[in-house]
# Entry
Amino acid sequence: VLVRVHAAAVHIGDCFGVRGSPLPMRLATGLFRPKPGVPGFDFAGVVEAVGNGVTGFREGDEIFGVSHGTCAEYASASESQLALKPSNLTFVQAAAVPTSALAALHGLRIADSLKPGRTVLINGAAGGIGTFAVQIAKAFGANVTGVCSTPNVELLRSLGADHVVDYTHDDFAQSGMKYDLVFDNVENRTVSDCRRALTPTGTLVLNSGSGAKGLRLLVRLVWPLVLSPFVRHDLRRFLSKPNALDLALLKNLLETGAIKPVIDQTLPLQETPAALRYLEAGHARGKVVIVVQPHSVH
# Structure
């Protein structure tokens, strides 16, 4: 599917690809320089043309989804990674959804936590994935605690969090509260700290985060998987693979108002490098969106 891009979102994976760090990223993104050349995975836009094998979309459809090199005026994408744009969202809002919302959905689902009554703690709850994780967990009936800094406390409450822990004043690992799931999106705490907040048979789901770099990051990626067979807790990592079925599920949640994207800022296409630098600093509140077509914000 050839798409005229109206808006694209960037996330920390784009920064990893540009930097070639951690080192294994270079096997996928290029050993000496980025192979794709253009950052961006998420986008929303209008279908310009479709290939002969495409049956679900036609020219003129407003869509959102995932591809490569989406910070551009045009992008091509597989039909299997697209869905019709939620009718109540602008292109800018829709572009903020796919990768982060899918990662939140898949991270919660792998731990079988999308059930009423489950207790879930989300560390890094004010970021791109965290804001969606709070809302998705609530939409499926979980009791949700979000961890964030002081400026984001009211944001998490507005998204439906049952409890909010301000990490500048309180330590979730020392509070005595126990959770069925700890979903860690920043990895600024040790595995032992996170396990201390789990019920005896609880699950720790670790997103890659940005709490370490270089060899230390590689150790953090591997160590929980090595440790998991020897402890009662279930220690998980996961890969979020975009697919049309889950995008359609998110579309429904968005159209019913169960979830909504949180957008930190929007920048024009020529400011994409500035957007990546801002993300890399680690304090984005929700998503950063690149506006390709200026009228897309309406």
